[in-house]
Fold this sequence. Notes:
Elements: H1 2-19, H2 24-31, H3 33-36, H4 56-68, H5 76-84, H6 88-99
Amino acid sequence: MKKLLAVLTIVCCFGVTAAFAVDGGEIYKKHCAACHRDGSESSRAGGDVVLKGQTAQEIEMKLSGYKDGTYGGAKKRTMERVAGRLSPDEIKALGSYIGSL
Length: 101
């Protein structure tokens, strides 16, 4: 009985975690793809930024910097608006997604 209860508790925890998991690919489609397309070319909007090849940590650092105003180049204002709408979990998910391109 105790084993069954322990297994059910673990299954429920994973189910709840999966339900609240943030999908970096969906966030990318919603917030990034219009300018950065698939990440393999520079954005046409300016900045000559190619996302593909950057690590998850680089992306997270840059997005966090845009969000708090400590990072940015030519398109700083645009990126500040985009990053400003992202939660820390969404920034992490985007970093993981872009880092895997």
